[in-house]
Amino acid sequence: MTTKRDYYEVLGVNRDTDDNELKAHYRKLALKFHPDRNHGNKEAEEKFKEASEAYEVLRDPQKRNIYNQFGHQGLEGSGFSGFEDIVSSFGGIFEDFFGFSSGRRSRSRAQKGADLRYDLSLSFMEGAFGIETEIDLEKMEVCSSCEGTACEQGTHPETCRQCGGTGQVSRNQGFFTVRTTCHHCRGNGQTIPHPCTKCKGAGQIRVGKKVAVKIPAGVDSGSRLRLTGEGEAGVYGGPPGDLYVFIHVESHDFFERDNTNIICQVEISFIQAALGDTIAVPTLNGKKELEISKGTQPGDLFRFRGEGIPSLRSSKRGDQIIQAVIKTPTNLNKKQEVLLKEFANMESGKLSNKLKNILKNNKARAS
Question: Comparing C-alpha atoms, which of 64, 62, 58, 72 is closest to residue 29?
Fold first, then answer.
């Protein structure tokens, strides 16, 4: 599988390049590698397609923003499959830029609608267990009055008189005949003498819509959902685009996520650490009892298996890892201080006896 080059590298520009400079760099490359100037040169055709794909993405603010954040992966499903795709995507740009013609006309005027992006914020728990929700969108839909024809009811499009319905006009330039897009019908081959009053001849209107979204359990920030057909309406009967929902999961006050595991810290007293105890620890499903073993040290880890985040790729769940934090007591009363001092003296006595035994053993070895 061939790895795509960075679009900015392809066009030889920086990431902060403005539209005018971007257009100038693309025009230079397109003039150099255009198939009309490189007949039979496959390498030139590939470079032309590569530059055209890069420019098609970077000249569109929405696509450029997605590419800047997520690279080629963020634009999956919107790539090109060949020269025809580039020509149909750009419409009359090549003719307007250079006076070139592709030498072939699209078999259909139908065009797929634009893809849309929606950023959805979820709470930590919503990301862990999933949620069904609705999101509000504004997007272009087919006009209900003219059903996308752009004509007032009872009227029809007419064949363009300028180009005779071909969508192109020809003119002679020296030894060459140059075909360009008809500016009267904009390459459609038809004109609308009586535009629809509701959509003003656009064939589409902007509407607000609620879209149901089912978020699976286990999503994390950076996850992306694709809702097929929920993008902008297509043109001239073309299919609608898709809606991409990018997930952002908020942090939690107690839990920290590590893939499908969750990590938390619990405070215990030094008495509990020394003697052991049973405590209640919050989990994603409520509180659960944890056995603190005798002699627990600061930083010791305990584990609840299967109490973590559900995996997106299987039915398994991660674990909950609990780290012990031993709290030193403050504001002791007189009795507590006396008891602790007695305990300290006892520990000191044990240490003293140990030292005596070590010295005695060393002396015995020396003799």
Answer: 58
